[in-house]
Each structure stands twice: as C-alpha cells, then as structure tokens.
Amino acid sequence: MNFQLTEEQILIQKTSREFADTELAPGVVERDEKKIWPKEGIKKMGELGFMGMMTDPKWNGEGMDTISYTIAMEEISRVEASASVVMSVNNSLVCYLLEKFASDHIKEKYLKSLASGDKLGAFSLSEPQSGSDASNMQTIANKKGDHYLISGIKNWVTNGINSDYVILFAVTEKGVGHKGISCFIVEKGGDGFETGKPENKLGIRASDTCELYFDSVKVPEENLIGNEGEGFKIALTTLDGGRIGIAAQALGIAQASLNASVSYSKERIQFGKPISTFQAIQFKIADMAIEIEAARLLVRQSAWRKDQKQSYSHLASMAKVYASEVAMRASTQCVQIHGGFGYMRESGIERLMRDAKITQIYEGTSEIQRLVIAKSLIK
Ligand code: CAA
C-alpha cells in the first residue's frame, strides 16, 4: 500500500491549485451573487486539459488516471464549485460515457471536441416525475426510418444552457421498464429543441441548470449510443464514476471550509486573544480535519479501484455520501467560526455551505447512495 502521490499527480495538484487561486478566485463571490457563468475560467480549464482528463489522447484527452482527476476536482472545488461541476459533468458523465459506450463515428465527431474543451457537454437523465426513480422516464424516442423523433422534458440539467451536445436518455420501447431505455447524443439547437430559463439555485449559482424541451426532435440513428435498451445500464455505470467526481467536489468544499476556519480563527481577536486559542474553536477545527482526511481516503480509494478495473460502485457511493456530509458539516462549522461575518454574502463563507448542499443531492441523493451500498452488502 502506498499513500504517496506520483510525480504526475503532484504536478496536477500544483497546476490545478495555482489555476484555481489565480484564475478562479478573483470575482468568485460576484459570479455566485449575480449567477455569472465562469466563461473565461472554463475556457482556460479546457486549455489546461481539465475537460477531458481521463480520456485517451487518441480522442484529444489527457489519458490521466481517476486519482489525478479527483485531485484537480478537489483543488478547483476548493475555490469555485460552480466551475468544478461544469468540469465534472464534461469529464465523468459525458467524455467517460462516450469513450466507453459510443461508436468510433461518435467519438470522432463529438468526443474529440468535448475532451479538448472546444465544446461542452451535458447529461440529461432526470425528468419532472423521475429523479431518484430514474427509470420511470417519459421522454420517448420513436424510430422513423434512419432517424428517431424524440419528445419530452428533461430537468435539472447541469450545463443545459452553455453546452453544445447533450447526452439524452429516452424510452424506445414502452412497458418493459429500464430495458426500454436508450441513450443518444443530441446536438443543441435543432428544430423542436428548446432550452429553458436558468434555474435560480441555492448554491453553485454560477453554474447553469435548466430544463430542456424536445418536441419531435430529429436525431440520426447513428447518434444512438450502445444498442437500444442499454441506456439505463449506461447511465448507472456512468453515474458510478460521476459520483467519485462529486465526492471530490465535496472534499474541495470541505477543505476550503477548514482553510478559511484556520486562518480566520488566528486573526479574529475576542476577549483579548485570537479565537484559535479557545478550545471550543480548536475542537471544531480538529473535527473538520479528521473527517476531511477520512473523506479523502475514501475518494482516492474509490478512484484507485476504478483505475485498477476493480468493482467500485459501492465505494463511489460511500465516498459521495461521506464526503458530501463532511462538506455540509465543515462548511456549517466554518460559518459558525466566522460568526456574523460568515453569514454575510460578501464574506464568501456562507457560499461554501450553500454549495455543499447540492453534493448531497445531485448524481444520486445520499439516500440513493445508501441503497446502493446496502444492496452491495445484502445480495
Ligand atoms: N451499473 C450498471 N448497471 C446497474 C447498476 C450499476 N451501478 N446498478 C444497477 N444496474 C442494473 C441492474 O443490474 C438491473 O439490471 P437487470 O434488470 O438486467 O438485472 C438494472 O440496472 C436496474 O437495476 P435496479 O432494479 O436496481 O434499478 P432501480 O430502478 O431500482 O434503480 C437506483 C436503482 C440505484 C435507485 C437508480 O435508479 C439510481 O441510481 N437513481 C438515482 C439517479 C441519479 O443518480 N440521478 C442523478 C441525475 S444526473 C445528475 O445529477 C447530473 C448533473 O447534472 C450534475
């Protein structure tokens, strides 16, 4: 067992840390407040190779391991979770899915530009009536000759507004449950494809989330990913990896909470002393640090197992549940340590708490993760 990062992983950590601190930190509070999408930051993330980190260089990716990806996700999330969710969707839900399941034609046509960061992808699974119960979707894809006509509504689509291509799940055969679901890649902007207005969210406010409307949208048959009926398994396999990315995002938010708590407690003077000298504050900081180290081990272990091609679904769920709950606790304590100042929007501190909350919800709620974990134990 070796807990030491490789030279390449240390370089990724340094590069992503410097990038986040110099390029993303300026203006992060304003972007959150005004819901401004971090366009420049995302463009630079593409230039640095952060948008297709694990994709084979043959398809314009960086060919790195999942551990490197979690390291970059953690560092970027430490500064701007709104930017890291854009990266996470493009990497683990779009590029990964295409590389693993799509035809070479799709890889050539779409994956190359997505992995290089020239184009942006979205993943649209959820619908108004099917969130956790993902297989209960209503969006329908009817085969007509050499194309499909797709109709339905998708919601809570991260990158829905700024993406160029959308991974879309739809029913190709009714009445057979998840076995009737298929997966497609759809270009934005075709006839009958409408993008909803940006949602007004509690956290990750600078990222975009919206509904997508499909009214007999014509999609060529070659845009089917895998075979008809394989869509649900493609979605769940992909989400297993996505959950590692969200766990790393939560870890970054938790680490930011610890860093801010340590530095503020050394500066803030009350009763004639820095508050860091009080045991009540020290215990909060120690508890945060313990939990963050434990969460990091789970994140890296799940990433390692994925890289070793060992089963990792249950560990990805464990990492996501634990890291997201640690992020929620650490960010709440961070606001507490900052007192009234931390409660103010301009402090940038309460943002950590708002951003942490979504990590317990998207890519499968904590309750769904517990079901996945329990199912792996009680077979
Ligand atoms: N990988 C591959 N296949 C899997 C799988 C996995 N991890 N888990 C289950 N399956 C297979 C099963 O083997 C089964 O296949 P068979 O019938 O051939 O045996 C099939 O999938 C159905 O399995 P279940 O009966 O267990 O499925 P279910 O309907 O009970 O649902 C669930 C299982 C775990 C609850 C699943 O629906 C789930 O994960 N729900 C949460 C959905 C989710 O995470 N949504 C996130 C939205 S995307 C998002 O948030 C992105 C964003 O924008 C940030």
What does this structure look like?
The radius of gyration is 21 Å and the shape is globular. The protein is built from 11 helices and 10 strands. It starts with 6 loop residues before the first helix and ends with a helix. 53% of the residues lie in helices and 15% in strands. A 4-stranded mixed β-sheet has the order 1-4-5-8. The chain has helices at 7-24, 28-34, 39-47, 66-79, 81-101, 104-115, 231-267, 279-307, 313-343, 350-359, 366-377, and strands at residues 121-124, 140-144, 147-158, 165-171, 181-187, 193-195, 209-220, 224-225, 269-270, 273-274. α9 (313-343) packs antiparallel against α10 (350-359) and α9 packs antiparallel against α11. 53% of the residues are buried. The protein has 379 residues and is of the alpha+beta class. β9 and β10 (273-274) form a beta hairpin. The protein binds acetoacetyl-coenzyme A. Residues 89, 93, 123, 125-126, 132, 134-135, 158, 178, 232-233, 236-237, 239-240, 313, 362-364, 368, 371-372 line the site of acetoacetyl-coenzyme A.
Q: Which geometry do the CA atoms define?
A: globular
Largest sheet: 4 strands, mixed
Helicity, as a percent range: 40-55%
Average of the residue pLDDT scores: 98
Bound molecules: acetoacetyl-coenzyme A
Terminal-residue CA separation: 29 Å
Summarize the helix and strand pattern as letters.
Answer: HHHHHHEEEEEEEEHEEHHHH
Number of strands: 10
Structural class by SSE content: alpha+beta
Biggest β-sheet: strands ordered side by side in the sheet: 1-4-5-8
Report the radius of gyration as a whole number of Å.
21 Å
